[in-house]
Amino acid sequence: MTYGVSRYTLPKLDPICTLPITHRDRIVKDLVRKNPFGPVGELSIYRDDSKYRSDHLRGYKPSSLFRLGIRDKDFLRQIIASIVYPGLTEKDLKVNRKSGPITRYVNRAWPILRSAILSIKSGGGPGVYEVYDYRFGFHTYGTMGYVSADDPTTALIIAKTVFGFIVPDDTVRVRFIEWESRDCVDILNLSVIAALSENIQKLENKKKEIDNTVEKNKSHMDTLSNIMRQDNN
User: Which residues are CB-contacts of 5 (< 8 A; sequence separation ≥ 6)?
Assistant: First the structure.
């Protein structure tokens, strides 16, 4: 028998900005320029001084851009609109013909943010990791739970230690989910518990149905046996 939690039963958590909001807005305003200044002045703490830094990130650390909490173009559009045209609704933007400039800003900033997001997703960092095994659960994505760790190596060690009794530890995998958020771990694990509880209830109900069917079949067999005995007498 297999057990698992479908990804679709888990709550959708909004990405978290782990930088000061004022810094987030200043970085976004910089990225929408034709020629961004990069992390200068107060934003210099987000400068990438590593040997293998990527020029297309305009001098920012991938982790700093990831920590903005912007994961898709739609949310980026909302952020830009709130910064450039505060107080205006989407309808107001269309009426006042402001949608065009915002689209241009999004198209400038999104490739930079997307590259940083993919970099962090593949390399990981301090934060939340999903523990999974594709063989764990039928018709599921194999999600077993979530752990907090400083890096993928540590996350995998924790995952194998905690979940190794469920599946062979050589099949356990981890993937980076979100940056530095212990609350996310608790929320996601509670949702896994809820989904498993629902699964257990369904299995118990199914077991009752099977037990009832077994009893009916036994009664049927007894009836046939009685008929045969009566005929022999």
Answer: 137, 140, 143, 144, 192, 195, 196, 199
Query: What value does the mean pLDDT of the chain take?
Result: 84
Please tell me which residue, 4 or 205, carries the higher pLDDT value: 205
Q: For 69-83, what is each residue's pLDDT tens digit?
A: 998 999 999 999 888
Could you identify the residue written with the tokens 């989904």?
195
Rg (CA), the chain: 27
Domain boundaries, the chain: 21-123, 127-221
Task: Give the pair of three-digit tokens for residue 156.
Answer: 């995998």
End-to-end C-alpha distance for the chain, whole angstroms: 46
Residue of 133, 134, 173 whose CA lies nearest to 155: 173
How far apart, in whole angstroms, are the C-alpha atoms of residue 173 and residue 152? 10
Q: Residue 95 corresponds to which amino acid?
A: V
What is residue 132's predicted lDDT score, i.e. its pLDDT?
86
